[in-house]
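Colleagues,

For the teaching module next term, I've prepared a clean inverse folding example: a structure given as tokens, and then the sequence designed for it. I'd like students to try predicting residues themselves before seeing the answer, so please don't circulate the second half yet.
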């Protein structure tokens, strides 16, 4: 296995794992976000709006990190397969 390809695979797995952890932390808070959204609609609370926006950003960032990690793994695997020829 070429060291360059292995580095991409390791990096991709680490980034995907971090994204998955953030995803697992964020998912349970979705019900809370729904409650905060209801509060926001009822009271037009700026703090509730910030919390909902922050949770949405965390959720999107976790998905992006997982995708980026998997792309890096795929790149490493393709590099490894290309070097084997």
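(Answer key — instructors only)
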């Amino acid at each position: 296995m070429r060291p360059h390809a292995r580095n991409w695979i390791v990096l991709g797995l680490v980034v995907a794992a971090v994204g998955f952890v953030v995803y697992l932390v964020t998912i349970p808070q979705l019900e809370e976000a729904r409650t905060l959204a209801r509060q926001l609609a009822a009271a037009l609370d700026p703090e509730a709006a910030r919390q909902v926006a922050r949770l949405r950003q965390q959720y999107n960032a976790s998905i992006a990190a997982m995708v980026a990690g998997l792309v890096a793994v795929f790149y490493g695997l393709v590099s490894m397969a290309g070097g084997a020829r």
